[in-house]
Write a structure and sequence with these properties.
2 domains; Alpha-Beta Plaits; 6 helices; 175 residues
Length: 175
């Protein structure tokens, strides 16, 4: 491959990585064409971009970004696929479900590493934890719901109490 081609690919990887908040490094090597196409189809439906990359070019692209990704460099061995998503746990769900299919005897894709919510997860033993990671927006939504709950209870009690008092006063006025 020519040096110009490599630099073009590195620039494309940089821009692609900049478009997504989270990415996973997975090993899909050994899957046949039908399984690979099925995985690509599932990723497309789940709004995941799946890219097979050369480890050296990915490392150079990661070097050029503002975040220090050196923790991931040990995972850049063998065949590597990049799964990019703006939802933190969707690629983990795809990896988990696809590797459990009966037709998938290799049990791939295998999680190598992930960069999710500005944290690094190295090794396939983190897959279960990544399945339950919530995005910042989900956590903010839960926090707002928790903060609104007491206020809603007070308003509800005041409204129901008002109708009760109104009923009592109406009954007394009729007597």
């Amino acid at each position: 491959m020519k040096k110009e081609d490599k630099s073009t690919i590195i620039k494309q990887l940089e821009s692609t990585l900049g478009e997504y908040a989270h990415f996973y490094l997975a090993d899909i090597g050994g899957l046949n064409a039908a399984q690979t196409n099925n995985l690509r189809r599932i990723c497309y439906k789940e709004d995941i971009k799946l890219v097979v990359v050369k480890n050296t070019l990915l490392q150079k692209a990661l070097d050029n970004l503002s975040v220090d990704f050196s923790e991931l460099y040990g995972s850049l061995k063998g065949e590597t696929s990049l799964m990019l998503s703006n939802t933190a746990n969707v690629p983990a769900k795809v990896i988990s479900e696809f590797s459990k299919q009966k037709s998938n005897k290799l049990k791939k894709p295998i999680l190598k590493a992930a960069y999710v919510e500005e944290s690094f997860y190295i090794g396939e033993n983190y897959l279960e934890a990544l399945l339950h990671v919530k995005s910042k927006n989900e956590l903010i939504g839960e926090l707002i719901a928790l903060l609104q709950s007491p206020a809603k209870n007070v308003i509800s009690a005041l409204q129901s109490g008002g109708t009760t008092i109104h009923g009592v006063l109406k009954t007394l006025a009729e007597r």
